[in-house]
Specification:
Strand order of the largest sheet: 1-2
Radius of gyration: 32 Å
Structural class: mainly alpha
Number of helices: 5
Number of strands: 4
Shape: elongated
Oligomer: single chain
């Protein structure tokens, strides 16, 4: 319950007007305040950025380590580009977390666009790599056959079985790789959309990470602000109701009493 000390004609003695907070007021944007089906949007964005930060570091480290063992121009180019993109993902994620905590909506909006660009570039890079795998299918089959000691024996009756097995194994590997590629890219696109959507509304609904408490008191939390407490920039005044007592009040306690003393 909050109070309003503004005087009016019916408030002769400066008695605070009672303001009742409607705790069941529905949130018009409830459907848009969650991600990943049931996670609050703020928690979801923090989780996505944290995950991208660690995955970016691991991906960059693995890509740059692979440069030492790369023996052709394609592998060197793929590892270099992959390491660079993963480095940018880690940096953008760290800046995104900082932008949210320090309430910088302009920076967060720019980073959300950067995440879209990085997501599309990673999609193109992985798509090119997957297409190259499909074109190199015959080479993979030959490598599989050459690594078999039975197939290397001339006239072996099982050489045809080994060749069929290698073809089936390579095809299965490509199908699984394509399925993983599609799932990962769909999830990445959804995460980029969640970050962009959050950044778009961040300017309208500032998060209370840097707000100083007023007079040493904490900002009250209402149901309408289910994801974060209100701040001075996005405060929605609660409804005010007139209080009518259910029992008679003595005249000497009634500020509106017009009775004259005897």
């Amino acid at each position: 319950m909050a109070t309003n000390t503004q005087r009016d004609s019916a408030n002769l003695k400066g008695t605070p007007t009672i303001t009742i907070v409607d705790s069941v007021e529905p949130n018009r944007n409830d459907r848009m305040r969650s991600c990943c089906m049931c996670v609050p949007e703020l928690v979801g964005v923090f989780s996505i950025l944290s995950m991208y930060f660690f995955l970016g570091i691991l991906g960059a480290a693995a890509s740059f380590v692979n440069l030492g063992s790369a023996d052709n121009a394609i592998d060197i180019g793929f590892s270099s580009v992959s390491g660079t993109l993963n480095t940018f993902v880690a940096i953008a994620s760290a800046l995104g977390i900082t932008a949210i905590r320090k309430e910088k909506p302009v920076l967060m909006r720019r980073l959300s666009i950067a995440f879209w660009i990085l997501t599309v570039l990673m999609l193109l890079l992985n798509l090119i790599f997957f297409i190259l795998d499909i074109k190199s299918k015959d080479e993979y089959v030959e490598d599989c056959e050459s690594n078999s000691s039975i197939a290397s024996i001339a006239g072996s009756e099982q050489s045809e079985l080994i060749a069929a097995y290698c073809k089936r194994a390579v095809n299965t590997s490509l199908i699984i790789g394509g399925f993983k590629f599609a799932i990962i890219e769909i999830i990445s696109m959804y995460f980029a959309y969640v970050i962009f959507r959050f950044a778009k509304r961040m300017k309208k609904e500032v998060l209370p990470f840097t707000a100083e408490p007023v007079d040493g008191q904490k900002t009250p939390t209402y149901f309408v602000y289910s994801t974060q407490p209100p701040t001075s920039t996005n405060w929605v005044p609660p409804p005010t109701y007139s209080v009518r007592p259910t029992f008679p009040i003595p005249d000497d306690y009634n500020p509106d009493s017009k009775n004259t003393p005897n």
